[in-house]
Structures are given as structure tokens and as C-alpha cells.
């Protein structure tokens, strides 16, 4: 029995282990099939090696093109423009190559991961525990064979893809290294050019040529590099371009609405003096937005700047037609023409003798034309006197350019040449942009009846039509930035400031930079200004022309608080995301704020929550006629903490939202703005009451300010000592016309009763005054 029990136990244990092995083997086989299927799907999503190689080859070809004139075909001098263009192209290529390298790294990791998982599953010990039973063994071997057939091609494909990916990855790593090395080399060249700005870099213009390259090749190289630089930059800044287009559309709509208001009120001047911004609203919008928004594009290629400036010049030229004198129109067009010629020359990246002669001619023309304008120009016809200063400065720069060109300072000569003409064009564009902005704000101040002075931060009652000094300061700052970009030393002056702002700092465990903080505040400021602008233009009564527009405006105004909350909420989210503020830090701040609320900010929170209740529940809307504790007026605005009520006396009452909800609020607008009026009078006891009723009701029904439904009502109340008391009830269409309508009706009732010989008895009182033994009788009439 002991031997039998021992054998039975061993048999049971063997069967148990065999069952466990079967279960484990089933799980392993399913896991292997799952990984094989995932591997197949992953392999199907691959771009083939031909496509990947083509991408790397395209980067390589662009790299060779970018290096033309810098690493190959160097010529006799390294030019600053060529180095800058090459650096921008290499930056774009490095970004593409780095992204490509990261994608290949990720692919290689996933390939290795699939191979490792499949190999580990295939080498699991449980997979090699074969059943003792021959039937089960045969079945298991068949499963193994099926799995082997499925795994083998996938494993081979994974191995082959891993080898191909590794080869591509090696090429990408080498390409990234070459790009980074080339950028470092270009940085050294740029430092040398900046250091040797005033040194002789090339032979004097009358001396023999040191090296020669056909001018057609130089032009073709400049064209290819310029197009490539512009393409890379636009691909990386497409979002900014879309934002700029949206701003142009918004500015255009605003100027069109402003022009329609002036045209409707017959306020447009025939010569558009002081109203040039309204002459062509689309051109004004394009000019203003481009000249301001171009500073959002950081380190743009020169070709993009030329496109922006050319568009602005075309817009301003059309606006100038028959607005400025012919003399100054010719001056402006000549400056634009010379600038465009210089810009075309500045696009050429490599030095050549033909270009140097062209540069010298352009410089001499600038000196001659500028001198004639400065000394013989019709200054009395000039609208912006500062333009003369920029033209005089152009003469100095162009003279310096010609001198530097003759004596072999090529980079300095080219920088001075483009800076001279650019200085004049930018000065004129910026001065007129500021003037147009000032005109737009001033014109809005004159016609928008509810302008919030906090919105534009300008008091036009004090400033008048003069451009504020702050605007001129911004013009000078923008001019300095655009002017300085043409010189090689600009980056070395601005570089330390840029590094200071971008340097990572730590405060405890939190890391931040001044750039991120500035970005946070800028985004919040923009969101705040946008919310104010939406509130301002959506609630202005001047935009109403009829009742339907009033109702639409009233509907929009009631949602203004929610719209402002949404705008500020989106702005806060974008600001936090852009600044990289961790969410856990925000949670700590909210916790501290909750403690502060619990201790001392209950009243403030009460008003804020009441504002939200008003926004959602809408017991009162912007534009409603209300009566709060005897204070009657119109709701001007509903804010976060408080609301503003404009009384009928003209005063603005600021009422906290909590007090507004807790008061006995009468909202006349909720009932359609109607109000019932009653007038009491008395008629003679001998009067014909039916005729009196007919006369008075006919008069009320004929008044257009009185509603027909509900119809006017006349009631005879009671007999008095000398008359019958009458009450008239009627509804007026607008609460604000109630007092005037009542006055008109009293006048009309008196006239109608007199006309029909219906008397209104006057109450008489007799008073006896006893003075000793003399009794006097005094008769008094109360009117």
C-alpha cells in the first residue's frame, strides 16, 4: 500500500506538472503570436529604405548648396550675408536631420524591443517541456511547427530592418555631426568678419581681381540659397503667418465699420485730411499690421523682410496718391525704387567686381539725390519733418558705403549701402504707421460714445491729434532693430542680452527663465486687451442703427462676461503652457489661495461668485433698464467683481455683484421694456361721461408711443364733493419714454377737454380767521 501510494502521488504530481506546462505553453504561444502580429503591423508602417535614403540625400544636397561660397568656391572674401544665409539654411537642415535621427532612434529601439521579446519568449524553459503522451506530443509539435513558420519570416524582417535602420542611423548621425561642425565653423567666420569690419578684406576697386567666378553662377547660387532659406523659415513659422492674416482681417473690419459710421454721419472729409486711415481700409490694415507684426518673426531671412517692406511700400504709395504733393510723391517713389535695387543687390551673397561697381553707382546716386532733397527740398510741404533727418543720415551712410567699397571694405560697404536706403524707407513707413494708428484711435474716440479710457491708455481730450511721444519712442526702437540687423556686430551686441534672458534659473525646485516669465505676462496682457476690445466694441451704442441691431447688441452684451472669462481662461492656459509652469506649483498656489479665502477674502469671493451667477443665471443683462433700491438707470457693464449702472442723471454707479444680487432688483427690460402709466383727473358732475370716455380713449389710441395691446383703460373711480374722479391707464413702448409720454398726454387731455367744453372743477376751500371780534372770510383756490 505504501508503494502504491507513493507511485500514485508521483503520478498525480507528474500529471499536475504536465497540466501546468500545457497552460504555460499555451500562454507562451499566444504571447508569441501577439508579438508577431504587432511586429508585422509595425513593419508595414515603415517607410522603405529608399525613401529614407532619399530624405538624407536631399539634406545632403541642400548642405552642399548651403556650403557653396563658404566651404567651397570661397572666392576672395567671406561675406556676412553669405554666412548668415548659410547659417539659417544649416539651422533648418539640422532641425530636419535631428528630427529624422530621433525617428530612426525610436524605430531602432522598437525593432530591438520586438526582437528581444520574441527571442525571450522562444527561449522560455516551459516551451521545451514535452508531453509524455504521444498524442499530446504530436499535437504540441504541430503547434510548434506553425509558430516557427510564422515567426521565422517576421524575425528575418525584423533583423533586416534593424540592420537597414542602423545603417541609416549611422548616416544621420554623421550628417548631424557635419551640420553642427559646419555651424561652429560659420560662427568662427562670423566672428572674424565682425572683428575685421573696418579692415581691408579685398583688393581696392581699381586693382586686379584676386579670384574670378562667373557672375551668372553667383546670381544662380544667391537665388537658390535665398529661396531655400525662405522656404525653411516659412515652414517653421506658418502659425505666425496665419495669426498675421487674422489680425489684418480684424483690423480691416474695424476700419470698415469706422468708415461706415463716418459716412453715415456725413463726417468724411473730401481730401481725407486727418482721416487717411479710412481712405482705403484694407491697405491701412495691411500696412499697420505688417509693420508691427514683423517683429514677432525672430531672425527672419532678408528676403522675407523685403517682401514685407515691398507690400507696405505699395500700400502706402496708393494711399499717398493725391494726398501728398507731387514733389514729395516723386521723392518717395525714388527712395522706394533705389531701395528695391539695393535689396536685389543685397540678395547676392558672393562678392564680384560687377557687383562692386553697381554698389558704387547706387551709393553715389543716393548721395546726390539725398543732398538735393536735404538742401533744396520743399520742406514746407512735408507732413512729417523727421523724414529730412533720415534722408540726411542716408547721405552719410551712402557716402561711407562708396568710400568703403573703393578701398576694399566689402562687408562694411554692403551693410552701409542697404542700411542707408532701408533707413529712409523704414522711417517713412513707421512714421506713417504710427500716424495712422493715432488717427484710428482718435477717430474712434470721437464717434464711439462709450469709449473706456482705460482701453487705449490715451486721453485724447489732452493729447488731441498730436502723436504721443511714446509712439515715437517705439518707432525709434523698431528702427534701431531693423537697422542694426544689417551689421555683423549686431548679434554680438544683442547676443549677451539674449543669453541673459534665455538663461535657466532655479528657485528651489522650480526652474525658469526671464523669457518664459516675460512670455507669460505678455500672453496674459494680450488676453486682457482682447477681452477689453471685445467688450468695448460689442457694447457700444453707436453701432446700433435700428431696433433689430439693438436687440442683437443687447444679446451679445449679456454674454460679454462669459466671453471675457473664456478669453482670459484660454490666455491663462496658453501662458502657463508657454512658460512651462508645473501643474503641482499651480496646485500649491491654489491651496494657499484657498486658505487666504477662508480667512479674509470672503467678501471678495462672494462678489466674484455673484458675478458668475449673474453671467449664467442672467437676472440682469448689459443694456437693461433697472431699479435697485430706488437707484434707476441702465446696466452699462457686468464685470467679474462689480457692475456699473449709468443713472438717468448721467452718473456711473459701481455696485459690487454681491450687493446687486442681494438687493430688491427691478428689471424693466425683462418684460419687454414696457411700463404702465396712470393719470388721475376729475370731470364735472354734469359732464357726459360716455362722450368723455370716447374722447379720452380715442386720444390715447391715436398716440404712437402708447401700446394698443394691452389697450388703454379708463375707469370712473368715485364721486367727490364737486367732481367725478377719473383714472387713465396705458402702456408705453419704452420705459425711458414714460415721463415724456405722460407729460404729452396731460397736455393733450387738457386741450381735448377744453375743446369739447368738458370742465375739470377746481377744488375750493373757505377759511375763516377769527381775530378778536372781527371775522374775515378768505377764499382760496388750489390748482
What report would you give on this structure?
- The protein contains 24 helices and 12 strands.
- The relative contact order is 0.05.
- Strands 6-5-4-3-7 form a 5-stranded antiparallel beta sheet. A 3-stranded antiparallel beta sheet has the order 8-10-9, covered by helices on one side. The chain has a two-stranded antiparallel sheet with strand order 1-2.
- The chain has 5 domains: 178 residues, no CATH class; 288 residues, no CATH class; 65 residues, no CATH class; 88 residues, SH3 type barrels (Roll), CATH 2.30.30.60; 93 residues, Alpha-Beta Plaits, CATH 3.30.70.100.
- The chain is α+β, with helices and mostly antiparallel strands and 783 residues long.
- A hairpin with a 2-residue loop joins β3 and β4.
Structural class: alpha+beta
What form results from the Cα inertia axes? flat
First CA to last CA: what distance? 136 Å
Q: Determine the fraction of residues in helical runs and give it as a percent range.
A: 55-70%
- Distinct helical segment count: 24
Unreliable stretches (pLDDT < 50, length at least 5) are: 449-464, 540-556, 775-783
**Average pLDDT score:** 79
The main pleated sheet reads as:
5 strands, antiparallel
Number of strands: 12
What is this structure's SSE topology?
Elements: H1 2-44, H2 49-67, H3 80-122, H4 134-195, H5 215-236, H6 238-264, H7 281-293, H8 302-320, H9 326-347, H10 353-376, H11 386-406, H12 410-447, H13 453-456, H14 460-463, H15 469-484, H16 490-502, E1 505-507, E2 510-512, H17 514-539, H18 547-558, H19 560-579, H20 583-600, H21 602-617, E3 625-628, E4 631-638, E5 642-647, E6 652-656, H22 657-662, E7 665-667, E8 675-683, H23 689-701, E9 713-719, E10 724-732, H24 738-755, E11 764-771, E12 774-781
Antiparallel strand pairs: 1-2, 3-4, 3-7, 4-5, 5-6, 8-10, 9-10, 11-12
Helix pairs in contact: 1-3, 1-4, 2-3, 2-4, 3-4, 3-5, 6-7, 6-12, 7-8, 7-12, 8-9, 8-12, 9-10, 9-12, 10-11, 10-12, 11-12, 12-15, 17-19, 20-21, 23-24
Main location: membrane
Family: Belongs to the MscS (TC 1.A.23) family.
InterPro entries: LSM_dom_sf, MS_channel_C, MscS-like_channel, MscS_beta-dom_sf, MscS_channel_2nd, MscS_channel_C_sf, MscS_channel_TM-2
